[in-house]
Amino acid sequence: MTMKKNSLVLAICIIVLELIGGMQTYLTQLILPIMAADLDAQDMYGVITGVGSISTMVGLPIGAALLQRCRLPRLLLTATFVLIIGAIISATAVNIWIFLIGRAISGLAGACLAMASIGAVAVGLTGRARQLTLAFNSASWVVASIVGPSYAAWVTNLLSWRWAMLCYLPFLLAARIIIAENLDSNQHPDDSPMPLKATGLIAIGIILMIVPVPSPWKYVLMVSGFLILGWVAIISMPPHTFTTGGIRLHALAGLFFLTGAYYSANELVTLSYHDLFSGSAKDLGYIILGGGLGWSVTGVLAGLKPAKNPRHYLIRIGTGVGLIITASTLITVALATRMAGLPPHPTMVVLWISAGIGMGIVYLDVLSTLFEDPIVPDGIPIETIAGSSVIVENLASAMFIPLLSSLVAVAFPQHGTSTTITPPTWPYVLSWGLVAVLAVIALSYLIRSGHSEKAAWLAKPAEADQSDRAAQAQPSVR
Q1: More confident of the two residues 137 and 80
Q2: Does residue 194 contact residue 388 with C-beta atoms inside 8 Å?
Q3: Other residues' Cβ atoms within 10 Å of the Cβ of residue 450
């Protein structure tokens, strides 16, 4: 009875933490342009997002190593306290450099907590309890898509972005303490999802993309860093992922560009509206609420009724990614024309909701394609595909978010100058145009994956028919 009670308490706290994690995602997205404007650091958008990406990628192997050497409850509590210290440093920062120190500390601790949380689910829960917890974790993002933007906008508007970073921390600490108290110290260590060599190259590539140097060296370094990250993407994936591929490999390549497009746009949408249309915290809250709710609700519905066959899969791919392409293209045109007489806020809300719905339609079906055995065996173990799916999303975020954020930052004078300007639209227009290009590339890979599956699906009855005929042609032995 006590074991069941502990499992229930543990499951509830893990779900609460997933909810808080979703809220943190929306909070970070909303306060970024407001904080950067307050600290006179809008020209350092790329540095801010890049530091978060570097600390997260570096923290994953550190978390995996600590998980092998430390008791899980102690690791959870220590990493939580470190994360809180980092958040306090950022929230009380008097300049952008102190904020970045806090962000780096929080990012490292957050990555260690991500590894420890996986261990908590694996060690503390078993059987049906584990399955239900993972299911409710996914459903909690529907709640997070409402509560997260609402909390971030309300607290930022009523108090400030600084308080928005602090007010939820007691709940985070309480949930972590309860989890640690209900965990058994016995654990099975997990390997890092990212090799150390690849992690080092990713850090170098991001640093080159975000380093604040004058033009034209900035563009040279951005291209160099992008090429390094592209090479890491190629060597980290199974062979032929981006070339000849197959059903699952083309789906993996499509997922890389799809998440790169959407996650980058997720950062750009608040930066664009805040900088070009003087958006308030309330305005930004409605925008990210619409997009997040569109993805989460549509994703739940799509998950309840997955694609039945390759034809349905291709229809969903075309519809979902088509919505993302259309939304990003229309945002590009709208920013280039300063909305062309349209009301800026409703226009941005509607377009971003459309992109969120598109992601909800397509995302789970792509994951299902990866994790289901293909009709024609490709010889790739499920462990390899599972690991690659984790790497591909992290790598896409680390590659494209800092790149496009750095491009947007070109609109502002170098940090330290007190000149107030109206930023030009071209960096935002170019960034959104690149999002549309990434989505088009994703669509091409996903369509190739769908057509490969359709061809295998159609060939299957023909092969079965030929086998039947061959069997009938054999003389019967009695």
Answers
A1: 80
A2: no
A3: 26
